[in-house]
Amino acid sequence: LTVRPIPPTPMQVKRALDDALLEAGVPFLYGCYATDVLQDDKGRPAGIVMANQSGRQAVRAKVIIDATPRANVARMAGAYFDPYPRKLQTFKRIVVGGPVRQGENLHARRLPTPLQASDGRTYEATEYTLEIPMDNASYASFARAEQIARDKTWHAEQVDASEVLFQVPPDRIQGKALECCTWPGANKIALDVFRPAQTEGLFVLGGCADVARSAAEKLLRPLEYIRVGRRIGVAAAVEARTAMAAQDVLLKGVSPRKSPAGDVREDTGWMRIASNSPDAIQSQDRAVPILGEYDVVVVGAGTAGAPAGIAAARQGAKTLVVEYLHGLGGIGTMGLISKYYYGYRVGFTKEIDQGLAELGGPSEGGSTEGQAWNNQLKIEWYRRAMRSAGADIWYGTLGCGALVDDGRVTGVVVATPTGRGVVLAKKVIDSTGSATIAAAAGAECTYTTGEHIAVQGTGLPSWGLGVRYMNTDYTFVDDIDVVDTWRSFLIGRKKFKDRYDLGQLVDARERRQIVGDFHLSPIDAYLGRTFPDTIVRASSNFDTHGFTIHPMFMLKPPDRELVPCYVPYRSLLPKGLDAILVTGLAVSAHRDVMPVIRMQPDVQNQGYAVGVAAATVAKSGKGLREIDIRALQRHLVEKGNLPSQILSHTDSFPLPAARIREAVRTLTEGFNGIEVVFSQPDASLPLLREAYERADSPQDKLTYAHVLGIMGVPDGVTPLIGAVESHTAWDEGWKYTGMGQFGRSLSPLDSLIIALGRTRRTEALAPILEKVKQLGPEHAMSHHRAVAVALEALRDPAAAGALAELLGKPGMRGHAYVDIDEVARNIPPSPVDTTTRERSLRELILARALYRCGDKNGLAKAILSEYARDLRGHYARHAMAILEEEPGPR
Asked: Residue 62: which of 204, 286, 290, 241 has the closest Cα?
């Protein structure tokens, strides 16, 4: 009997490494690239600068261990390396599933142990050795090699594959020890082969060590590599204990070889800085190298970005697509939400679906209702479509800044595994999903502030071999906060510890958004507003994944009704910037309308439209606002993205006065027409006041008072007081719901209380405080939210005592998570859990109201200060924004 060892899963390896670091007390982050090396007053390395989703940060260090595959930190520090040979280079790639591929300069070896999936199926893995021509050691060369390797090794039956190519680097450092010709073993190798001869305080832990290339191959075997890592870690710690702290640490300047016009600007994302850390490291003037020059650069190759890159290249534009992950398609592939919900499944989306059927067989057409597509097929279809159109693809590349010249974005700052640089571009498409490039360029954006803490729920999917679909909603994740991202991945791996792996993309439904030339609202969707510059016809219902905040929805909540919505070109243009378009979740729109316009078919079609627009304008030399919008629309109609009637559309607003009068009249029929009333409040208010005065029945009078109150008008305070007081007990409230949330997120009494508070009349306080006295932790979150919103509108110091008493009841406090152990103890068991969010939101919202009503004994400040340190980014942002306000009434 032959017993084969069972190989560990990726999840097991990652969890083991996570746990080892946590147990050793080592802080760590994911998704960070070293981009520069700090120096002390003697020119010695004194730390690094890293780039990530939160911007760039400096990290001081007495000793640096460079464990990057190509010793990039050592290169930045000035270490000497052998020249990179310009010839055929040897790379390896592993593919799981499918038959062995054959080809020139390709050798295949079946690995001895199959991998077993959770459903009992087994998959064989193949290790491919490839000979690929390399012009140089630039990242562009490695990116081309990656595409060649995927061309040669991909198969429709594969279920997993190496994210990056493996190579024993041919260019080693010049170390402090003589060359070691053979590998003596991890425990015997002289550590000076890992220390660059010309650089102090630096170890190179990797294949660039100064050993023979045959010895380097043995070094890189996992168990030997771990043993060497332990030895170097101990040596670095000993050296750091005796080393003096560096003085006058700075980032030294670099003179430019070629200096394009403009300013390099970086994202204004935030990083949580330890209280004992210096605020900043001085940086001298420093040139950013030019890595390439293109007509169109697409940053982010997700649901919109991949189609944008294909469309731009098809229009003849020299196009570069940069993607931080190592697969294309975003949420629908890497995020495993590989199934359509709603959306207008025509045009380019139809082409994608047909392409999947051609690539994987008729059953793989992604448009079949309820069918999950094969994400491996869709990733490959996008890649092939880009390649055939002539676009370049850079995986593992993070967009982290912009080159801006007089309000025009002329390039993208990127961080690659080999360093940081700028790619010049005539036009930029920001498909990061979080407006990263636009924000860096100076675009005004909206995100979580002190205004509200409404966020659509999200999660990280677990993943198994052959698994196509996994949708989650158990947390909030601030994807531009690397601490929160670290928290979510760490907890995701614990939550799904028995799965093969964890998805690498946070399936966010709401992110940072630009303030564009036009701001789309849920009213526009409900009323079917038409525009002269429509480029997307979206279609969905209000699948809100949480609570809504638009005043209209406080009166008449959204339901499951399918709502078509036109999206204008102007919503994709950041106000005040040219040469950049923003797609997906980051477009200029009210957060409550996002569920209607974020469906994958519609975002795919949006990306295609934007790619065509960017390429067309790039070729013409004009600005994005000078585009021939009708010509673009005609192309989209021909493609099938848009219906032909779009060509005759004008703006259907403002609405006729007669329609507003009729809407005011019908409000007494279950708030029928409320969207019309809110579309033009200046015209509606006089009519509402008149209708309130003329109303004959108490119920009609209350209806108009209710609407006026929500709009902040005090005329109907008396009937509102009567309505609230008539409820001797709380009605059925709304418990926080993420997945599957439709309809109301406030009870009828909740809505009346908010309307009463918004009258801002003194006599409104007493009936609201009576309701506060009845509340406790057993009541639904919507009741707590209602009294909080009402009382912070009143801003009466007399409310502070009641709010403090409520927060003092057992179970109301202590739901901020400020350390990872606390988070780990409260991992929600379900992939759609809501309990942790219900408790935390309730506490935070009540503390906000208490703070704004004047606080009591510092309770609100204490609670908010806890949440300001919360590892969950949205809670921290919200709390910090409130603490920046002056406490008490204003």
From this structure: 241
Q: Which amino acid is at 510?
A: E
Which ranges of 304-374 does DSSP label H, i.e. alpha helix? 305-314, 347-360
Question: From the CB of residue 358, how many other CB atoms can be counted at a distance below 10 Å?
Answer: 12
pLDDT at 275: 46
User: Strands 419-430, 290-299: parallel, antiparallel or unpaired by DSSP?
Assistant: parallel
* Cα dihedral 587, 593, 597, 600 sign: positive
Cβ atoms of 513 and 446 within 8 Å: the answer is: yes
Least Cα distance to 680 among 656, 698, 703 occurs for 656
Q: What one-character DSSP code corresponds to residue 175?
A: B
What is the three-class DSSP state of 759? Answer: coil
Strand 398-405, strand 408-416: pairing: antiparallel
Asked if 409 contacts 437 with a C-beta cutoff of 8 angstroms, the reply is yes
Cβ-proximal residues to 554 (8 Å cutoff; 6+ apart), any chain: 710, 746, 751, 754, 755
The residue type of 122 is T
- Look at the chain and count its residues: 890
Q: Return the C-alpha torsion angle 143, 146, 152, 158, nearest 10.
A: -130
Distance CA 580, CA 528 (A): 28
Contacts of 236 by beta carbon, 8 Å cutoff, 6+ apart: 63, 65, 203
Question: What pLDDT is recorded for position 366?
Answer: 60
Query: Would you call 422 exposed, middle or buried from its count of C-beta atoms within 10 A (0-12, 13-18, 19+)?
Result: buried
**Neighbouring residues of 818: CB distance < 8 A, sequence distance ≥ 6:** 866, 869, 870, 871
Buried/exposed 234-249: b ≥16 CB within 10 Å, e otherwise: ebbeeeeeeeeebeeb
Angle of the 765-773 helix axis to the 748-758 helix axis, nearest 10: 140
**CB–CB of 687/660 below 8 Å?**
yes
Closest C-alpha to 584, from 457, 436, 471: 436
Name beta bridge partners: 282.
250
Q: Tell me what pLDDT residue 3 has.
A: 59
- For 439, residues 6+ apart whose C-beta sits below 8 A from its C-beta are 267, 268, 269, 445, 512, 514
Q: Which residue has the tokens 């593992």?
A: 396
CA distance 409 to 297: 11
Query: Quick one: tokens of 704?
Result: 């108009």
**pLDDT < 50 regions, the chain:** 275
d(CA 506, CA 483): 14
Query: Across-strand partners of 292?
Result: 423
Give pLDDT, residue 367: 56
Tokens of 16: 């083991």
Enumerate the β-bridge partners of residue 420.
415
Residue 589 contacts residue 583 (beta carbons within 8 Å): no
Task: For residues 44 and 41, give the distance between their C-alpha atoms in angstroms, rounded to a whole number.
Answer: 8
* Cα(29)–Cα(47) distance, integer angstroms: 16
Q: Is 414 helix (H, G, I), strand (E, B) or coil?
A: strand
Contact 403, 263 (CB under 8 A): yes
Helix (H, G, I), strand (E, B) or coil at 56: strand
Q: How far apart are CA 803 and CA 855, in angstroms?
A: 9
The pTM assigned to this predicted structure is: 0.96
| pLDDT, position 280 | 82
> Residue 503 is encoded by which pair of tokens?
């998805």
How many Å apart are CA 735 and CA 152, to the nearest integer? Answer: 53
**What is the 3-state secondary structure of 59-125?**
EECCCEEECCCCCHHHHHCCCCECCCCCCEEEEEEEEECCCCCCCCCEEEEECCCCEECCCCCEECE
For residue 246, what pLDDT is reported?
A: 81
Best CA proximity match to 557, nearest among 744, 785, 417, 836: 744
Q: How many CB atoms lie within 10 A of CB 698?
A: 11
Q: Is the dihedral of CA 785, 787, 790, 793 positive or negative?
A: negative
Structure token digits, residue 599: 């469906």
With beta carbons less than 8 A apart as the criterion, state whether 215 and 182 touch: yes
CA distance 320 to 386: 10
- Closest C-alpha among 773, 771, 772, 782 to residue 838: 782
Amino acid identity of residue 405, one-letter, is: D
